[in-house]
Design brief:
- The chain is mainly alpha-helical.
- It contains 16 helices and 2 strands.
- Strands 1-2 form a two-stranded antiparallel ribbon.
- It is globular, with a radius of gyration of 21 Å.
- The relative contact order is 0.14.
- It is a multi-pass membrane protein.
- It is found in: Cell membrane.
């Protein structure tokens, strides 16, 4: 069984890596995609918003699908669709083609994100210790690789299809081979029982009242993440007066620090517990936004974005893990519902900062995600929830500092 789990862990980490590469190749070549298809500036936001909206639909569908088939089957077939849709983005001709490719990409990404995290949560439970941050570190590494490949394509003025084809040719068969070793949890959620109206779970149901704090934390984390990805370059150049070349650095620094933080984060969870790690991450992220908002120059602003990477990187993986602990009999459903708020935060973050920046100031706009990320401190105890049996037969959450030692889950 140890070998089975190790192979399952390695194959799932590769899936996270491949998804990071594909997603970075799409979002970092948006200007080239806009030029290829002649998408106007007025129409571009509609195309960009459609992807996370459809991803949310895909996540909802996955919740229902895993009641009939294991999450590994969903992941096995959704990842190739994502890669082929990426190739379609580079090969299409006309608005109908890019619309169809992005629709397929969005729906498949929602299923892919949900099923990957379902398998990650179940594997962490089987391991009996924190490993979830490691999977998201693989995603961050894939994002760095994908962004680097996108830079090469842009630097050499390669057509999108030429840039995407080698990546798909390598990743697609590798993902198929790796999918042989995915490890499911207890299988489809046939044993999920009815849920009480008060939000408590009588067995394996998902009570939205109990899940809501984690949903809020997930949305807030992605508001912060989308703020960095969409506004760091503009902020450094327009507000802090950096050069155009230096303005490209903050997001790369953010991705690298995210990778480092996630690579070592599991050790912190095992040593200090999930609650303390999440609290520390929220505080560091808030300090990062404060430094960015008050920075007198570009290099101090860079320090702020560096802190943001270290702070935000731990929150999302631990939110998924907490959902699995909170609803052990319905972890797949909890992860699928929680995953929707990934896209909610992404949709809110960029327009929110942009609107506040135009109406007020971009320095002031950076204080809003700073305040929002501190909401995580209010709900930090949710990250230690695990079921406790009460005399009435219901399972309700109790807080315990899980994540300590080798048997934290």
């Amino acid at each position: 069984m140890t070998d089975v789990l190790r192979r399952g862990r390695a194959s799932l980490a590769f899936s996270f890596f491949a998804q990071g590469v594909a997603f970075a190749l799409l979002v970092t070549r948006i200007p080239a995609i806009q030029d290829r298809y002649g998408i106007s500036d007025a129409l571009l936001p509609a195309f960009l918003a459609a992807v996370p909206i459809l991803a949310g639909v895909g996540s909802v569908c996955t919740e229902q699908l895993v009641k009939r088939v294991p999450p590994s089957h969903v992941l096995r077939w959704s990842q190739p669709v994502v890669l082929l849709a990426l190739l379609g983005v580079g090969a299409g001709d006309g608005l109908w083609a890019i619309g169809l490719s992005l629709a397929a990409f969005g729906l498949a990404v929602g299923s892919l994100d949900a099923s990957m995290n379902m398998l990650g949560v179940s594997l962490q439970h089987r391991y009996g210790r924190s490993i979830m941050l490691g999977f998201h570190a693989a995603f961050s590494l894939g994002g760095i690789v994908g962004a680097s490949l996108a830079w090469v394509g842009a630097h050499w003025d390669l057509a999108l299809f030429v840039s995407y084809l080698p990546v798909v040719v390598v990743l697609l068969p590798a993902a198929f081979v790796g999918s042989r070793w995915y490890v499911d949890g207890s299988g489809p959620e046939a044993e999920v029982k009815a849920q009480g109206e008060d939000g408590s779970s009588s067995g394996g149901g998902v009570g939205f009242k109990l899940l809501l704090p984690l949903c809020l934390v997930m949305a807030v984390a992605y508001i912060g993440d989308s703020t960095v990805s969409n506004w760091s370059a503009k902020y450094l150049q327009d507000v802090l007066g950096s050069s155009e070349q230096l303005a490209t650095v903050p997001y790369n620094v953010y991705m690298v620090t995210t990778l480092i933080g996630r690579a070592v984060g599991d050790f912190g969870v095992r040593r200090f517990g999930a609650v303390m790690v999440v609290r520390a991450g929220a505080v560091v992220a808030a300090v990062g936004f404060a430094v960015v908002a008050g920075a007198p120059g570009a290099w101090v602003g860079m320090l702020g974005f560096t802190l943001l990477g270290f702070g935000l990187c731990v929150i999302v993986p631990q939110t998924f893990a907490a959902a699995g602990r909170l609803f052990p009999g319905a972890a797949d459903a909890a992860v699928a519902r929680l995953n929707i708020f990934n896209y909610v935060g992404f949709l809110i973050g960029s327009p929110l900062v942009g609107a506040l920046g135009d109406a007020w100031s971009y320095r002031g706009a950076m204080l809003v995600p700073m305040v929002l990320v501190l909401v995580t401190l209010v709900y930090a105890k949710s990250f230690a929830s695990e079921p406790s049996r009460y005399g009435d037969g219901h399972e309700r959450p109790r807080t315990a500092d899980v994540g300590r030692g080798s048997n934290g889950l």
